[in-house]
Protein 1
Amino acid sequence: MTTPSATKRVLVKSYGCQMNVYDAERMTDILDGQGYQATDNIDNADLIILNTCHIREKAADKVYSELGRLRELKAERKNAGQDFKIVVAGCVAQAEGKQILRREPAVDLVIGPQSYQNLPELLARKSRSRHVDTEFPVDDKFKSLPSPSNERAKARGVSAFVTIQEGCDKFCTFCVVPYTRGSEYSRPVADVLAEVKRLTDVGIREVTLLGQNVNAYHGLDESGHSASLGELLKRVSEISGIARIRYTTSHPLEMDENLAFAHRDIPEVMPYLHLPVQSGSDKILGLMNRRHTMHDYLDSIAMMRRHRNDIVFSSDFIVGFPGETDEDFQATLTLIEEVGFASAYSFKYSVRPGTPAAEMDDQIPEDVKDRRLQILQALIAKQQRRHQDSMVGKTLDILVERKGRYPGQMAGKSPHLLAVAFDAPSDYIGRVVQVRITDSVTNSLVGTLV
Ligand code: 5AD
Ligand code: SF4
């Protein structure tokens, strides 16, 4: 017979963007302090949190199919006299709230992305009543989040996410984010610096600063001045132990030259910019309410390149937005040809109830979306490969992240975020080393330590 242990175990399953990955880490930190150990094995979990994504229909659907499976598991556990709690967090929780409790009776708690600091209190409630908490106190959330224990921080390896900005006021007509994450909010500079410092204290060498509109960052500094992202990058780079800084996701409307100066002047800021454009057609950009033209976008790219000539770009694209003709799609392909992306995410337009585009005429048939997506992805794959292949023969700075696939091999990332494998001692993890690139294979580079 096994003795039930006093420690409870929590499994946090995250879907969607990097912001959710960050939130999932923080939820685990909060619960760690409440006697819940993190596990990735559902069989020994007493609590599961689904940290959900609402951005496209498919992502939202996943939640309900997962909940169906969990309902059965909960029933099995109940028969065995065991407690098992199911929490739905993240953006589906925010968007659907009570509806989730109605649709899925096995769910105990629904908690939005701005309220998860209340998890311990809500889980500790004795009452059997099921609960929904989808308030928007972003400020409170960050204030009441505990620091990770040293063990948990160490488990993150050499690279970590830090959310510095949340929410969106842009209201692109296809997007649910302004409704699920609320309006734009920037964390104060001192809070961000303190969090980065805690991470570097336990060996983190690279931080990726996260925000839905990260380049709209305008957090207050110690003297009450509203700091730009460029200024924050400078402050973060001064923290000892920081080797690399990245940030994502930027918006074309918020590009300013100070950011280009940061890339030029701060060696820790990596030469990589994720700048979603969505479409290359001005007509579609207008219907999307992006509030910039294709030329504005190309101007931003040129401005960044002027100050940092080795910078590379990635983007997000939506194909099959309502009203998109073959010509509009062709304009997107032309823009891609013109920029030359190192990487990109691309999606078929997905109708999101409650957003303006859902009501637009001229919705595009699924087979047309499929065809366009295939063409676009083939073009991006070609550019990606060309970019990767162009590294052969060069010597690159590689941040060593972990052991590689083969004995004696280590793996790390180049400044352009390319995966590189090479032979090196295993205690090199966390160091930035020079590697001469000898070969380019599927999805990674191979090289030798210089
Ligand atoms: N359909 C398809 N893609 C979408 N995105 C956001 N909303 C939708 C939607 N309704 C994509 C955009 C955005 C990325 C995070 O997700 O490209 O930049
Ligand atoms: Fe969504 Fe547009 Fe805001 Fe990005 S900028 S989160 S796509 S509304």
Protein 2
Amino acid sequence: MANKKEINRRRTFGIVSHPDAGKTTLTEKFLLFGGAIQEAGAVKSNKIKKTATSDWMEIERQRGISVATSVMGFEYRDHKINILDTPGHQDFAEDTFRTLTAVDSVIIVIDGAKGVEPQTKKLMQVCRMRKTPVIVFINKMDRPAQDPYDLLDEVENQLEIGVHPLSWPINDGPEFRGVYNMYEEKLVLFNPGEKAMENNSVEFTDINDPELEEYIGEDAIQLREDLELVEGVYAKFNNKAYLDAQVAPVFFGSALNNFGVKEMLDCFIDIAPTPLPVETEERIVKAEEDKFSGFVFKIHANMDPKHRDRIAFVKVCSGKFERNKNYLHVRNAKTMKFASPTAFMASKKSVIDEAYPGDIVGLHDTGNFKIGDTITEGEKLHFKGLPSFSPELFKYIENADPMKSKQLAKGIEQLMDEGVAQLFTGRASTRKIIGTVGALQFEVIQHRLLHEYGASCRYEPIRLYKTVWITSDNEAQLADFIERKFQQMAFDKEGRNVFLADTPYSLQMAQDKFPDIQFHFTSEF
Ligand code: G4P
């Protein structure tokens, strides 16, 4: 098929890590190798940092936390690579989750001294759920790190995935000499301070070659022992096991020193999956299909603080997306065409004429899109896998400026469409309840309502444990439940029935007493 060549050269992946493990630094290095940015070695420069992280939201600048998810595309060795960055902060876990629905594989960055950290574990759960192939980069080997065997054990046990080291470190910290790259059978030497991009590797197909001593002296003995052991334990690398998300290849390096990054990138190009088939409610959609389809996984507001514009990020799943062609917005049953779709190449946004599966297209949006929306050439498809989770934290949201109630309503509506939080409306009280997964979102909402919509809100506490969607085939029981629990019933934004459980006990009681009612903890059921 015509698009086959384009599909085969695409790799769309997400980088995830616990904050501070080095995700931003690694992303910058990828961009450097792709020629998308030029300032080699200037990693600490704020300028690069700003462009490599999507620093679009003012609040993000204020807090120095990456609350936004950005997309960066670049060309490398005739491949089109799309990196989807994810917010490291745990309060934005849902944002990260949604981004992971748009990737075909993931690179997990781990701090060699700290090992697997809580946020990494959480993110890995999402990868496991979706069977996303994972590569692990153990970073900061230029600093004292844990023993590599311990690190591998930790990854295997804590992230619950098989591991297969494809590079092996020679010492760590001040004695770090480099790595032996098993994938390409070469020794890669670390020269602190040089931040070498090229010419730091020597081919060594035979590790017993005495020449090895010339490069790393007595460390050669330990390296040979390690490699023998590693080979004995892990045998030959099985690419299928990686693609099936059973085994994670592991690389060691130092992103800050640009070390071990190119090796991983080269291997990644070889082994990482091309755009994968995607499930819809109706059928599986394959990248090779002729007709275009895609879904919105992210809506980003406030790209330009002077305008209240939004960009809907669409993952192209099949066919070819073309500028100015008519497409069906399935939920709205509306035909739309896009005059200025954008692509994201490194830090730059540019208008594009076409995009292929794996690519992320930015569509200018005036409020038509919601997370999860599908666009096609006419087929009524609904992409799956973008649920909202039952939130963890709740507050009543009240209007603090009676003159601005319209603005407040509009602001809340649009922020909910973006997936910033979830809104429930009490059936008895008609009060509005905001539910989030992290405390920070309440502040983000308040800040954005004020700065983007000119509306003021205040929060009031509510005693709530969980909001749970309820459905049942037993209509009489459902009606009975709603009547009895009317004070604890609410509608979600789509008008679906939600039970407001104030304690785990009351939820359990409700489940026990009403066996024909299904209690759903995510919005996709
Ligand atoms: P994140 O996006 O995962 O949160 O991490 P980020 O890349 O911002 O890195 C966190 C800190 O770790 C940064 O230092 C960064 O320079 C440092 N770092 C990243 N990779 C390496 C490495 O390979 N070796 C060493 N020694 N340090 C590394 P910072 O001082 O917190 O920030 P900055 O002042 O450098 O921006």
